[in-house]
């Protein structure tokens, strides 16, 4: 396990950052916001086109509704690594029922204390979750606020689309508005009136916006009123409500601005507000609290359920340092600073959720920072809690039915302690990893690698779901394995930190000798192997580097291929993709993050820029053709703003002319491209994986059981003809695409099946359009796992007993003779 130990000086790290899961000293590191997903989609502007993503989602849904759903994706892991969790809630009436909200992976529910989880939010368009709230009076009533409110975590591309309400424990959801409030920090329900709900809105992160503050509904979400507004740059990040009096609410405002090249995370309008009349009027609390704008950044607050006159507030200052912890014993009329000198200060406390009070004891408080610290004497002294957990804490919940059970969520996943945080166990079944890049060993398809946000470079050597292990640290990016030697592995972390192992991952060493430290490297620096010679590698900074000795040393083979350094404190002007022709190793194509595409046809001696007629957007992928040495493809992120251009282009004359092969694609980012041996094209996009059998004239959704999540990368494993999809928030999926899958899929369009009743809670009737000799039925859950199979012969009508299945949405895959079809069914 990779460990980073405490150094004498502050270790400078980045947005995702290294982590420790040992009981060694916790690493101290400085974290800078690198919202690369946003940067890709906003370049060359400073914002994302409003409404375009929603339109792309509608296009996706229409495509799915107009075709038989085949084939389907199979989940390929990991479940045991995890990803960022933003909220945890425990059902008030069932000690074994938890709800978990993920930063970009939706909502999961367990009814057996975490032994099994079911994704319950996958049919919604946005899977970024800010907060979840459960009714204390009706166990089936659940509210969800979308849009992660944490700023600068690398995953912020899209805001949420408001609040959702479920009256059946999350089986179905209804959007209840507030679609323009950006991200949601907190949802609170009146403990005595389920129809009165308060929502804390942070607003859009990257622009000024008046849709911020506290919103209230008194009729269950049918109507909303903005009852607290501070400014167009100040949202509300946290709230707490009196446990028995829903008129008393506390809200913390946060003055926060973020631009692609700048940020401000504090100021005068970061405050604590209180209402005693249900939100009609608000009072700013100041007595004993910080007053200087430089002292006031993100503020977290919680109320004691055992003594509601006691509250605690944790202040980060405007820079992000720990400013202090404050306590009131009179409902906020006056506050006193408690000891915060023992809290670990890492300089980016705008990233953490903050303070939680044990519901049974007003003096027991937990502080969520880089790690978990606890006080049992009201903040007079602090000690470390939840040892051996991943860093960067965001969520904590107490089980009201099990004293001593505390649940924790952080950038590494979900943890459960049954002894008040003295020790804990990590959940190993939540598939919410946020992948950047993906790779499968050419020689051994069971060895699967991925680079992930805040969870480093990881792999499985068995192809399993629960045995992935982290092999290097930092944020993980493009891994590669020598196709001729399975023991030689390359792994990247942020800004081009390249490591190599020659002993199957037992140890790694740095291999950047010859690469100038003065060169610019992207957060997601690319590397590539020469398909004809595994000893030859390429590395993209703002110049292209080449190694002919398996990365022992490097030599620059190009000038600066970008448009030069850009203003601001974030790195622009770098190579982002490299492709070496499998037909001619002298032909190399590169793309840059500032819209350039270059080609060399003599191994780097001469370079030609070929992108003058292409869109000025962030290049995501260049791909040299496998059949024609003069052809290659380019894909782009970002959005069109009135231009008549696309996101996928092809040239057949080495870039002299271009053909827009975006076809009927909607206006949305394309993140990667692959081509199989049958000539089919596959795209990783923000709305799933798309495929074309006719060089982009027509595009279709490939399978429909991927959750509604961004697909950041695809990898085609040639020997097994398996396509892998790496998602940003729901781990990875795979599909067997052998036998020209798009042609087979087209042949199945005339095969029809009727399912009824749907939804069902017991029997499901299946009626085929003809009698078939051999029928096999697979019932597949939302993770692509087959949970039930049935075989039939010489039959046309079938009845299946579904009563033993958990409440969820399933796929019914029916294979009848040479035909295949997949349908959705809901079990309630």
From TrEMBL:
Residues 1-20 form the signal peptide. Residues 163-287 form the Sortilin N-terminal domain. CDD domains: Sialidase_non-viral. The keyword Signal applies. The keyword Repeat applies. PROSITE patterns: PROKAR_LIPOPROTEIN. Keywords: Repeat, Signal. Residues 755-827 form the Secretion system C-terminal sorting domain. One of its GO terms (biological process) is xyloglucan metabolic process. Pfam families: Por_Secre_tail (PF18962), Sortilin-Vps10 (PF15902). InterPro entries: Secre_tail, Sialidase_sf, Sortilin_N, WD40/YVTN_repeat-like_dom_sf, Xyloglucanase_GH74. PANTHER family: EXO-ALPHA-SIALIDASE, XYLOGLUCANASE (EUROFUNG). This is Glycosyl hydrolase.
